[in-house]
Amino acid sequence: MGMILGMIEVIIPVMAVILIVVLVLITGYVKASPDTAYIISGLRKQPKVLIGKAGIKIPFLEKKDELNLQLIPIDVKTSSAVPTADYINIRVNLP
Known about the structure:
By secondary structure, the chain is of the alpha+beta class. The protein has one helix spanning 2-28, and strands at 29-31, 36-41, 48-51, 54-56, 63-68, 82-83, 89-90. 28% of the residues lie in helices and 27% in strands.
């Protein structure tokens, strides 16, 4: 009987640790689509950037920020020539 109680005293903490690790992996799993970047920061010195792949975020200790990478259409019109970085003047009129 004493041997069974000794095994139970060891098994319960081990199962609790396993349960905590599984919960962290399940709740911390993040997957970024190809047009979204997830920046995970907190415990690491350099933030982890996920673009089109999956990773693990430690709940309560790390923060996840989302950055949209989709193209944004804009209308560009200039009234006069605009110099480029190579000092070439261009005139832009796009609808």
